[in-house]
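Let us work through a complete example step by step.
Step 1: write down the sequence.
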Amino acid sequence: MKTLTGIILAGLMAWPLLVLAENQPGGMQEDVQRLKKQVLELNRDLFMLEEELLFPSNTQVSVFLSMDIGSFFQLDSVSLKLDGKEVSNYLYTPKEINALIRGGVQRLHIGNIRKGEHELVAFFTGKGPHGRDYRRGATATIKKGLGPKYVELQIVDATHNQQPEFNVKEW
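Step 2: predict the structure and record it as tokens.
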């Protein structure tokens, strides 16, 4: 009996709100839109907070991939190791490769490392000059200090020898 009474009371209490919403054209829609906006803002704030908690700036390292024209190398996949541990392995679609060639940058990895020197090894697989299978690696020692560390893996066409070059740039 208490449940039925609660339902009736809840319905009676909600009724004036429904009548009020019906009497105000667009009022409920405006409220819904305002609520959607607040939810999106909250979601963004939670994402930023989660990233700060999981990857504090004093230990954060991010590795990005960029690509030049791509005439001498057609990328298929990238494998990334940090201090001997595989942290990323990515297989590309034609649309993703086109986005990289047009100037896009992809974040391959975000993680935590301690202050000091760390070995970064990247393996690039694809088709090289004359359509041959091609696998090259790039190794770099990165120095992590205070604050976040950003590393860019660059695939660049070297026109002087018609070969791709794989560079590692620290930011």
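Step 3: interpret the result. Helices lie at 2-23, 27-54, 94-101.
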